[in-house]
Design brief:
Elements: E1 6-10, E2 13-18, E3 21-29, H1 32-41, E4 48-51, H2 52-57
Parallel strand pairs: 1-4
Antiparallel strand pairs: 1-2, 2-3
Length: 60
Amino acid sequence: MNLYPAIDLKDGQCVRLQQGDRQRATIFNDDPTAQAKIFEAQGFSHLHIVDLDGAFAGRP
């Protein structure tokens, strides 16, 4: 099994939405690049990135 860490981006920050509600986002890191480097340091070589702003707007 392969595991891929994910970064959900909203307003340029790494977030986790509560039950998919964009108004209820918990910020995990203000710096997506720093978060990606944390995952890399943990041994991950792939990353799943979700642009929540684009997803909710219907365009990138």
